[in-house]
Amino acid sequence: MAKLRLFFAFDLDDEFKEKLYKYQKSLDTDTFRPLKKENLHITLAFLGDIEEERISALSDILFYLDFPDKIILTAKKTIFFPSYKRPSAVAIEVGNPDKNIYIMEKALRKELAIDGFIVDGRKYRPHITVAYIRRGTAVSSDMKIPDFSHSGRFSPVSVSLISSQLAKGGSIFTTLCSRKFN
Fold this sequence. Notes:
Strand content: 35-45%
Number of strands: 9
Number of domains: 1
CATH topology: Cyclic Phosphodiesterase, Chain: A
Oligomer: single chain
CATH superfamily: Cyclic phosphodiesterase
Helix content: 10-25%
Low-confidence stretches: none
Distance between the termini: 36 Å
Order of helices and strands: EHEEHEEHEEEE
Structural class: alpha+beta
């Protein structure tokens, strides 16, 4: 029984991904390993290793989940993730003035639990990982990262179920199914 490393994610539009890609170029490549532009996303729920046979149930959840017409987001600040004390990545913290992202995340977790899926139990912190800290890099609390400056709002274009295959040089993401916002 084959297992896939799966997660649900908000897909970003190409224009916003281009802004993030330009920001990635400001990072020191000796210290940071930027994600590929096509892999930039906002994780909605990380599922971990799931049996391939259960993908259809996850697809059903995605298509029957109650979606808002649109989600309005803001890029708040650049952060070390998961924390400043033990960073493994550089991320852009995401704000959500209308709180729809949290409502949707909670509804998804509820549906996943009903169908017997176990989701990471940590508090949801919407963010966009833009780069990983290279192995062997000494990280200190005074390490500085450039700010990502983006005034204004943006909206995800869809939600996808994604398979992540760990590989040398970065993860390979494959979209298994996707649902666009209205």
